[in-house]
Design a protein that fits this description.
By secondary structure, this protein is mainly β. It has 2 helices and 24 strands. The strands form 5 sheets. The protein has a 7-stranded mixed beta sheet with strand order 1-3-4-11-6-9-12, with no helix packed on it. A 7-stranded antiparallel beta sheet has the order 2-21-18-23-15-14-13. β7 (about 85-90) and β8 (about 95-100) form a beta hairpin.
């Protein structure tokens, strides 16, 4: 199992970074490698972002040194999102079958976790998100048809989109993870514009459903010191609480958004006026 650690970066340092430094600190590549579990341990709210792609035998989620616990879920909660073929996530004595774009929440103490694909030729791709937990909430599989769906934006503003709230207080209770998916309609390319920040929560984005030659230009940084990252299919972004997080694609796309921090209020954001962006 591959584990990488990313440190928390302050906005003054990030404003002086060049392209490669920004990509090295905030972009996560190679999430889905056949037959591997790959994790990035971030010091942004102790968020772990990773991927598991079982192609043969079952893959186990092993304990990792940064958490300092005998088992991965001893003091953590976990969300697994399937962005590939059908597969199964097992935790303790329970197994959960996930179709494409289903999400599974596993509470603290749910047991040893493993991943399997139904078909090695069309393997599951489990996008993993984990944050520290203080209470053991029940595990639950949320299928895309059970998510709370919102329709926002318009073709006129190039941001017509469907927002699916899966791991959300209106659907289930968690300690601090809030996770959902946004799908842009054909002809729409913008997400999260006008933009916002929420200094009390960090966020991670996984961009997917992009063709090989398509890209998303992800905007980050303080509102008065914006930067961008060029992102391709199935790459993730770490977004500090002080940073905007917005994107525009060369085509429509989908992304998984995940937050962790001081509260689970999806609407608790600090909006940025367009005139304040630089």
């Amino acid at each position: 199992m591959h584990v990488e650690t990313r440190q928390a970066i302050d906005p003054r340092a990030a404003a002086n970074y060049g392209t490669e430094q920004l990509r090295g600190e905030f972009l996560i590549q190679n999430l889905f490698v056949p037959g591997e579990v790959r994790l990035t341990y971030s010091h942004l709210d102790r968020l772990i972002v990773g991927g598991a792609m079982p192609t043969g035998s079952m893959l186990k989620l092993e304990p990792v040194k940064p958490t300092g616990t005998p088992s991965f879920l001893d003091r953590r909660e976990l969300v697994a999102v399937n962005v590939g073929g059908k597969g199964t996530v097992s935790a303790g004595n329970e197994s959960h079958a996930l179709d494409h774009r289903d999400m599974l929440y596993l509470g603290m103490g749910a047991g040893e976790v493993s991943f399997a694909s139904d078909d090695a030729a069309n393997p599951a791709k489990f996008y993993l998100l984990s944050a520290p937990a203080h209470h053991a909430y029940p595990s639950r599989l949320v299928r895309i048809g059970e998510a709370n769906r919102l329709e926002l934006g318009s073709q006129a503003t190039s941001n017509e989109r469907s927002i699916y709230q899966f791991i959300h207080p209106d659907v289930l209770q968690t300690c601090q993870l809030v996770v959902g998916m946004t799908v842009l309609a054909p002809g729409s390319v913008w997400n999260t514009m006008p933009c916002h920040v929420h200094d009390r929560r960090s966020e991670a984005y996984l961009y997917f459903a992009l063709d090989d030659n398509a890209r998303v230009f992800h905007f980050m940084g303080e509102p008065t010191e914006t930067r961008h990252l060029v992102v391709k299919n199935e790459e993730a972004i770490l977004s500090p609480g002080w940073s905007i997080h917005s994107g525009a694609g060369t085509s429509n796309y989908a992304f998984i958004w995940a937050m962790a921090g001081d509260n689970v209020d999806y609407k608790d954001v600090d909006m940025v006026q367009m005139g304040d962006l630089r």
